[in-house]
Amino acid sequence: MIKFLVKGLLRDKSRSQMPIIVVAIGVMLTVFIHAYINGFMGDTIELNARFSHGHLKVMTKGYADNMSQTPNDLALLDSDSLLSSLQREYPTVAWVPRIQFGGLVDAPDSTGETRAQGPAMGMGIDFLSSASTEVERLNIPKSLVRGRLIQNAGEALISNLFAEKLGVVPGDVVTLIGSTMNGSMSMYNFTIVGTIAFGAEALDRGALIVDIEDARYALDMQNAAGEVLGFLEGGFYSDEDAIAIAQQFNALHADSSSEYAPVMKSLSQQGNMGSYVSLLNTWTGIISSIFVLAMALVLWNAGLLGSLRRYGEFGVRLAMGEEKGHVYRTLIYESVVIGVIGAAIGTAIGLFFALLLQVYGIDISGMMEGAAMMMPTVIKARITPVDYYLGLIPGLVSTVVGSMLAGVGIYRRQTAKLFKELEA
Amino acid sequence: MNLIDVKNLSKRFPMGKGEFTALKDINLTIGKGEFVGLIGPSGSGKTTLLNILGSLDVPSDGEAIVLGNSIGALSAKQSAMLRKESLGFIFQSYNLLQVHTVYENVEFPLLLLKLPAAERKKMVMDALAWVGLTDKAKSKPPQLSGGECQRVAIARAMVKRPSLVLADEPTANLDAANSHNILKTMEALNRDLNTTFVFATHDEKVIGYLRRKIFLLDGSIDKDEVVEHSKIAAS
After folding, report:
1. Which domains does chain B have, with CATH numbers?
2. Of the partner residues B82, B91, B100, the one whose CB lies closest to the CB of residue A7
3. How much is the ipTM here?
4. Do B87 and A321 touch (CB under 8 A)?
5. Percentage of residues in chain B with pLDDT exceeding 90?
6. CA distance A111 to A397
7. Residues 6+ apart with CB under 8 A from A105
8. Interface of A with B in 292-351 (CB under 8 A)
């Protein structure tokens, strides 16, 4: 009997091939769209995390209170000791010191007079120590447009847009005019060795990247750091984990009222990033749910119609003496087989396209010109474990429920009427 | 012994707020080996009566006893069992499973009976031999003519050697030559296997072969006549 049903299923393309194609397309779209939404939303968070917020950030209480101004006069002192302590207490988190600073970049002409000036958004990162992961984290090698990476003290990278604006090329010397952490004026020369484009308009307007030791020297911040950023294991932000670590750390330093006492904040606790994270999570959930629901309705209907079409056949089988329960069960088994195969194919194809988008991305930099928000200019998908089983909801559950509802007719209709439908 | 015993049978269907009476106070008996027809125009109730005799429907009043089973009292399972073991159906539009071969269509009732493969094969080949379709065993219904399809349907109905075959307008979609061919086949099976055939028809060609004619009019038996053997031979 099973062989007979399998033969029927394989030979009747409207019973097997078509439903499998419909289910596979629905599941593929569900998986792909979910990975795409997740990737786009997550990328925006990760971009902010990598460049400015970290998954966790340790600052002084005073710095935290005025974080938008990056007040280096309230920087963390004895940052090496703090860093060692953080690495010891939270070994699964990657901790890195950073100095963010503002200033004016002056590009001189051949006579030493100012040729061009522009406001810079500077970042001192650990560029030159052998254990540093910052270069990879900020994707600097791939962001290099011209020149080379920093190899020696006194060298700097500048954003390509900024370089064009100032008319500087690799090899030129520029002067950073800023203020030290003690409030006095600072002037420091850097040799531009390369230009970079991060693919985020807000960053690419005036970025100046230097080694943290140079930044410390230029801003008189020996063994200090504006902030220490922490990045969770796996490289993706988890609000729950980050908040738990921050709470644990802050509990240890709760007694100190000094504005130089360290405080740890999760990404969602920094500025408006909290509402942004919850907004992204909410919208990811809403959009994904709507899409899953829509696909579920489509596939439910497909299952329903596919089964209604077969009432005549069921009538004949009943007339031959097959029991209603057996006809109903075989209908469900068939829909399970179709649902599983369709969901598997759809998930595989959906993951394949999501992987392509995750690896290569789609460049939307043309649409991001002038954007003030730090958003990725390359749209990428992000495949998460959910994507491996999400397609089962519309693919398997909806198809089976559709067939189950359609199959109820086998019981509710009089056998004679059911069987007459074939002759209609 | 009677194969079918119908007593005071009525069948009503709901229609709007009222009811439509399809059969009223039917009384008849059909014995083993009969070749009998329920004859009447459309709406006379012949298909309704055939459905009840085939355990596809139940009477509203009265009783229909088929092979010792009171149709109205059977559970769905018992009803399926009766159809599976003892009844064969032949439909106007053949109702073959289109994606299955002739062999598989004929084999289907035997699969339900869970017979061993070797026994099934012998029975299917015998049935195909009765209807002259041994060479078409591997063909599928869309590759066959209407006459051949109906012969497959007859083979499917006969393969389990049922006590009773119910045929609803079996020649309605066939031309005259094919109709006679089919009817001769059924007549031969009735004679050789002593299978009872009950037809629902208004086709003169079928009527010409019947040995007993039960005329229905507006849900009641109008006339019940047994045809003399000599008359059948002459026709």
Report:
1. 33-60+75-234 (3.40.50.300)
2. B100
3. 0.86
4. yes
5. 62
6. 76
7. A117, A118, A119, A120, A158, A162, A166, A174, A175, A176, A177, A206, A208
8. 312-313, 315-324
